[in-house]
Amino acid sequence: MKRVIKSVPQLDGLEPYDPKYLPAKALISANESPYDISEDIRAEIAQAIAQVPFNRYPDPLANELRDMIAQANGLSRDQVLLGNGGDELLYDLALAYGCKGRKMINVVPAFSVYALNARLTDTEVVEIPRKADMSIDEEAVLARVAQGDISYVVITSPNNPTGGAASHQFIERLLNATDALVMVDEAYGEFAEQSCLDLLKDHENLLILHTFSKAFSLAGVRLGYYLGSEAVIREFIKFRQPYSVDSVSQAIGKVVYSHRAEFMETARELAAAAKQLAAALKEMPQVEEVYHTDSNFVLFKVPRAGLVWQMLYDQGVLVRDFSRGAGTTDCLRVTAGSPEENQLFLSALENALRAR
Length: 356
Ligand code: PMP
Known about the structure:
By secondary structure, the protein is α/β, with parallel strands linked by helices. It has twelve helices and 13 strands. It has helices at residues 39-50, 63-72, 85-97, 112-120, 138-145, 168-177, 189-192, 230-239, 247-258, 260-282, 305-314, 339-355, and strands at 26-27, 80-83, 103-108, 124-129, 152-156, 181-185, 206-211, 224-228, 289-290, 297-301, 317-318, 320-321, 331-335. The strands form three sheets. Strands 2-8-7-6-5-3-4 form a seven-stranded mixed β-sheet, with helices on both faces. A four-stranded antiparallel β-sheet has the order 9-10-13-12. It has a two-stranded parallel sheet with strand order 1-11. Strand 3, helix 4 and strand 4 (124-129) form a beta-alpha-beta unit. Helix 1 crosses helix 9 and helix 3 (85-97) packs across helix 8 (230-239). The longest helix has 23 residues, at 260-282. The chain is globular. The model has no long low-confidence stretch (mean pLDDT 97). 4'-deoxy-4'-aminopyridoxal-5'-phosphate binds at residues 31, 85-87, 111, 156, 160, 185, 187, 211, 213, 219, 224. Residues 31, 85-87, 111, 156, 160, 185, 187, 211, 213, 219, 224 line the site of 4'-deoxy-4'-aminopyridoxal-5'-phosphate.
């Protein structure tokens, strides 16, 4: 057999990203919405898709959806960029601002994709660990950017997997302290009902990420967007795949975004449900720690978490096991589901802790 040459060195020993999906009664592991798109909105989507010319390429920049998002946020079209899920835009961040010889700041524990993209582009990762309560070590981040050698900083607000939001005041201080690009990942921002959007007007170095995958119930469709300065968005347009946001996704996005007030209402309910889960977890004596959440999920610490994860799964409940991750020893993350799923989770956890 003819052999193939080795791939690039960055891939040596790398494990492909694995979301660890498994079938379960309660799917509360991936921070998705438990609620699928309603029948009424589905009917509107079907009509919109019926108008899509499948033989033609999509509008590369999804300008109609771009205009809707721009208008809703008080921005110009040139300050918005759509992508094939937030994931594509995160990849483009590493391509457009990272490379060999450049450095990025990752405030850990963090969404694993940031470090993965940095590695793929040979960007050095400077890790700033969170404090024991999982809040950001703000002074450490500010001191590190002051050295002047950072190309981009990722701040996730609210953070995945830990759940808490960053302070607005800190983000403003950070933007003023550096000319590095500061990407604030607000994938869960709709649940926190806070944003650093207002800081865009005075800070060319701010870039904000949003996704349709969480509060907008569209994880299966793949739509995300950046809000930023015109100068930064222009750089991303040079790197992006021109047709990554297909016509069907654009059509779906426009319908869903026109109903955003309804989705925001559900997001509020899910954020409240996450806070209720956190309160119920705090009542359980075997649960050692419940981290503050501003999002639709809760990170908690329980002894022998790997075993507890299995005992939950055996009862039909899938949560995310972070117990082997750096900085999240013995931690599990549970997404707020429907009231039934939340109840099933709490009783399954009580059973598991009692049985041990
Ligand atoms: N940012 C964060 C913090 C996330 O948790 C996720 C999804 N897990 C994303 C971005 C990307 O989401 P998507 O690609 O589905 O838009």
